[in-house]
Amino acid sequence: MDSSLTCAAIDRDLNSVIMDYLISEGYPSAAQRFASEANIQPTSAVDSIQERVEIREAIYAGDIQTAIERINELNPILLEKDNALHFALLRLQLVELIRHCQTDSNDNVTPALDFATQQLAPRAPTNRQFIEDLEQTMALLIFKPQDLPPQLAALLKPELRKDVAQRVNEALLFEQGERTKAKLFDLVHLRGWSEMKAREAKKDLPEHIGLGLEKERNGHGNGAMYSNGEGEAMVA
User: Fold this and answer.
1) Other CB atoms within 10 Å distance of the CB of residue 166
2) d(C-alpha 71, C-alpha 169), whole Å
């Protein structure tokens, strides 16, 4: 087989994987720039991911009400069908209300209590996990922020926002008929599994096998996989 054809096929496959990642994870600027640099035709999905980006950014900012409204605009039945996702969003909204009342000089917990009573309490009995999540969240009101046990303090960390945002992104992708996770993650997992099996078979392997991304991280190369063009890191 002609080596030039083989290289072209590999480049094409790699470009497809990268574009799939940028679209799935919601980086429209990087996707458009990569399509231009790689001289490939951007898919129609590039134009449709901005809505998911705005929903993700609203969740990252703690503006859960806006995120819910945008989700309903994009897919009016999603939260009706996915009770677990809807409850996760409402619970996160309660966390944000509690966070606000803890930093408010008046220390007014009434908005948080009213929201829990009206939005979460009626839904909690339908699922045992909902009850546990609501009880854990309400426990935030018992302690001062500096005295929270680690399990409760974790609710106020950015990771909860990121987790909910990822679940929302995957649900929207599924409803749009797209992959819920980028192919790149599957390849990384497959590579890790292959290395593990090779080591179990006592194959002669270096102690550490990198992913071959060090050059890009050190600033050599176009860096398309490390920035979305707006200063956001994309691959750790």
Assistant:
1) 15
2) 10
Task: Report the alpha-carbon distance of residue 31 to residue 14 in Å, rounded.
Answer: 14
Provide the CB-side half-sphere exposure for 208 (13 A, CA). Answer: 3
State the Cα–Cα distance between residues 161 and 91, nearest whole angstrom.
11
Pair 78, 176: CB distance under 8 Å: no
Q: Are 78 and 173 in contact (CB under 8 A)?
A: no
- Give residue-wise pLDDT tens across range 143-164: 888 899 999 999 999 999 999 9
**CA–CA gap between residue 192 and residue 4 (Å, rounded):** 29
The two tokens of residue 140 are 């935030």
Q: Which amino acid is at 70?
A: R
Half-sphere exposure of 223 (CA within 13 A, CB side): 12
> What would the pLDDT profile of 9-47 be if each residue is shown by its tens digit?
656 667 667 766 776 666 777 777 777 777 777 665 665
Q: How far apart are CA 118 and CA 25, in angstroms?
A: 33
